[in-house]
Specification:
The protein contains 8 helices and 7 strands; from the N terminus they run H-H-H-E-E-H-H-E-H-E-H-E-H-E-E. By secondary structure, the chain is an alpha+beta fold. The protein has 2 domains: about 60 residues; about 170 residues, 2-Layer Sandwich (60s Ribosomal Protein L30, Chain: A), CATH 3.30.1330. Strands 1-2-5-3-4 form a 5-stranded mixed β-sheet. Strands 6-7 form a two-stranded antiparallel ribbon. The longest helix is centred in the N-terminal third of the chain and has 42 residues. The protein is rod-shaped and about 125 Å long. The N and C termini lie far apart (about 135 Å).
Length: about 260
Amino acid sequence: MSVNRKKNRNEGPPADVGMTMTVSLFLILLTFFILLNSIAVLDQQKARIAIGSLTGAFGNLLGGLSPMKTGEDIIPPSPAMISEPVTLKELISMTGKDMIKNVKIQGMKDREIITIKKSALFYDDRLEIKPSSRELLDRLCEFINKGQYPVEIVGHTDNVPAAEKGYRSNWEISGLVALEVLRYMIQRGRVTPRRLTAYGSGSYRPIASNETMASRAKNRRVDIILNINAPPYIRRIYGEKPSGVVTYKEFDFKVF
């Protein structure tokens, strides 16, 4: 006995199982790639935040990103660097410590006096500038070349008779010492010759008693005098270029 079933008009054709599995697999793969992409983006953000934080902490660049809030600076940007003139003391302090202890700088109202021990500049047995003193002299010439003021180089000795040193007089020794420094400044330091004056004072301007070896060593020295605040007419004389100023009866007139 057979039972005839009525076909339901609402019932559609049988589903395609292969197509359903393909679509499902595609959706799973799409979800997987989206997840991987989100992980990669998060890792890049974390790396950027970490690098930015380290940069800000060390302060080498303009400040790093905060590890707590993305996009915020951990430190404010550094101000722009401004070129400021270096002082004479700062410039000379850049030389070695062994040389610095042999140098004294005295600032006065109208001049700067740099006193250098003779033993730091010259050999004991000959008037030849030591290579170890070149850095100091080079930095000093660099500073001098930035101005147009006159420079004096003065040699000094102790009171020991010059004959015991192999010379005719202490005047000669002090003068030769000053001339050697002048020659160095012109040839190696490129200082304009007309700005320089060199002379010796012999033993007549001591700064110590000359009674002991240590005090006599202090008197053997070279003074380099920078007449920075010299009168205007003196600065014009030693200037490398004409200033366009004429002095008449103690009055300065600028020529246009």
